[in-house]
Amino acid sequence: MQLTAPARRTTDVKGATDTEGTIRAARRTGIHDTDGMAVAAFVLGLLGLLVLNVFLGPVAIALASIALWRGTARRGRALLGLGLGVADLLVLAVFMSADNTMSWSL
Question: Going by C-beta distance under 8 Å and a sequence separation of 6 or more, which residues neighbour residue 17?
Fold first, then answer.
């Protein structure tokens, strides 16, 4: 009676083999995570132009920077997220200086 699963030898190289000798594809979760970060930076930067730009702008900048640093496949989306995050903070600064307050409203 076997209570545990058989041990499998796995490595993180492309085309790794398991214990039976069959070739399997290596998992590349890091690339998929950075792609998600790039998309999230873009969406948050775009949303930050409308609401909560004091919070969403820096989050978009941070996510885009991490995605670019890790080498995302969606480089253009990450750069758009970075630009929109900076635009969020610029919009906030312009409206704050126009109202002479710490917030802005239309």
Answer: 9, 23, 24
